[in-house]
């Protein structure tokens, strides 16, 4: 993967948004944002109601994902272009999700909704209904998803990247100030994890930083590009953004997102926890 | 910066003794700017949070006491930085003109 194959520009979207085989999908943390205005032709996915199992803490399964995309009119060979607010935070999560279920051609709109709005490009509240399809999802690609035992084994062996804010990493906060729910029992981070907040990968306007800047960001924080990497945050969304940077833009092999993240790790019995601003020892 | 109530956001339900509130309005001339982006940067310039402004141009952060920078991005305008000090017991009202 590379920047060229994973990202599209706003100009590209303007040019291709009506092409057959191109589906725009908006995914926001604020799920009402779409209703107030979206890029013409874009459909919406709700990161919680559409993508999370309503009972268990897990994703919708393969069959549910097939039913969802069939209902929304997405085909297997469509080029899916995802975008959203907050520097594409939740759009990157949805991108990872599409890749988890084996979708072939997915892209992110660089800069997401913010860059689009700052450019004063057009938004519409027109309702979009696509004709139903028969989407077939693949089994989950566990090469990009990490579970807790694997994370435990990775301490001191693989790169662990904690992408939460510095205060969450140090244990001074359990969640971002505007998201008080979904907290772990204990604060802190997984020992040896490097602290590289996800937001450092984005420019002020929400576009991704250059390849050189991104390489330097992770290398300076102690990521060894010769090793496998697991990224985590609090519930797995922000770390999907970092997974996108490492795996899709920089083309690193063997990068996984630990979606259990801190809300799972910080509630587990018997696992090590480090406090403070330093990574801590294995 | 002042305690201006004119156009200020209603503080009903907000315990200003326990929250270091930073809030205000983004204006272009006299007109409020909705859909601008206000970023909260900490004293080292590190990104902390971001909110879009409301239709009336308003925004609000629940920060920690200390010095912050508000960076405002709006369509057809250069970014504007404003320094602000947040503290418990007082609301920091900031009017940003782009």
From TrEMBL, chain A:
* Molecular function, one GO term: thiosulfate-cyanide sulfurtransferase activity
InterPro entries on file = Rhodanese-like_dom, Rhodanese-like_dom_sf, Thiosulfate_sulfurtransferase, Thiosulphate_STrfase_CS
List where the protein spans the membrane.
none
Alphabetical list of PROSITE patterns matching this protein: RHODANESE_2, RHODANESE_3
- What reaction gets catalysed by this protein? thiosulfate + hydrogen cyanide = thiocyanate + sulfite + 2 H(+)
Q: Which residues form the Rhodanese domain?
A: 18-125, 160-274
Q: Which UniProt keywords apply?
A: Repeat, Transferase
Question: What protein name does the entry list?
Answer: Sulfurtransferase
Source species of the chain:
Kribbella capetownensis
TrEMBL record, chain B:
Q: Which Pfam families match?
A: DUF1416
The source's superkingdom equals: Bacteria
Annotated source species = Kribbella capetownensis
InterPro entries, per database record: DUF1416 (IPR010814)
Its name, as the record gives it, is DUF1416 domain-containing protein
SUPFAM superfamilies linked to this entry: Cna protein B-type domain
């Amino acid at each position: 993967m590379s920047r060229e194959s994973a990202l599209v520009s706003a100009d590209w979207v303007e040019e291709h948004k009506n092409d057959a085989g191109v589906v725009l999908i908006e995914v926001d943390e604020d799920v009402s944002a779409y209703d107030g205005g979206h890029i013409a032709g874009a459909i919406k996915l709700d990161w919680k109601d559409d993508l999370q199992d309503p009972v268990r803490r897990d994703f919708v399964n393969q069959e549910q994902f097939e039913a969802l995309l069939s209902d929304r009119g997405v085909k297997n060979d469509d080029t899916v272009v995802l975008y959203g607010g907050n520097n594409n935070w939740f759009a990157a999560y949805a991108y990872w999700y599409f890749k988890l279920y084996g979708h072939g051609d997915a892209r992110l709109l660089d800069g997401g909704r913010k860059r689009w709005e700052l450019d004063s490009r057009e938004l519409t509240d027109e309702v979009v209904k696509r004709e139903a399809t028969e989407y077939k999802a693949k089994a989950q690609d566990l090469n990009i998803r990490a579970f807790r035992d694997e994370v435990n084994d990775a301490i001191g062996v693989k790169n662990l990247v904690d992408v939460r804010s510095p205060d969450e990493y140090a244990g001074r906060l359990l969640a971002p100030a505007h998201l008080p729910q979904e907290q772990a029992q204990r604060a802190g981070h997984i020992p040896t994890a490097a602290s590289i907040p996800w937001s450092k990968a984005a420019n002020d306007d929400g576009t991704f930083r250059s390849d050189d800047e991104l390489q330097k960001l992770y290398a300076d924080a102690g990521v060894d590009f010769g090793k496998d990497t697991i990224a985590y945050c609090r519930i797995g969304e922000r770390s999907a953004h970092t997974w996108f940077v490492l795996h899709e833009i920089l083309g690193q092999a063997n990068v996984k997102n630990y979606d259990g993240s801190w809300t799972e790790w910080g509630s587990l019995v018997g696992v090590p926890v480090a406090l403070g601003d330093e990574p801590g020892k294995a | 910066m002042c305690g201006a109530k004119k156009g200020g956001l209603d503080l009903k339900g907000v315990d200003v003794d326990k929250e270091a509130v930073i809030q205000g309005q983004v204006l272009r001339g006299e007109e409020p700017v909705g859909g601008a982006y206000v970023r909260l940067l900490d004293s080292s310039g590190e990104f902390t949070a971001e909110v879009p402004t409301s239709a009336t141009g308003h925004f609000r952060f629940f920060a920690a006491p200390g010095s912050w920078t508000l960076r405002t991005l709006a369509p057809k305008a250069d970014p504007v930085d404003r320094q602000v000090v947040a503290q418990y017991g007082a609301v920091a009202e900031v009017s940003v003109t782009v």
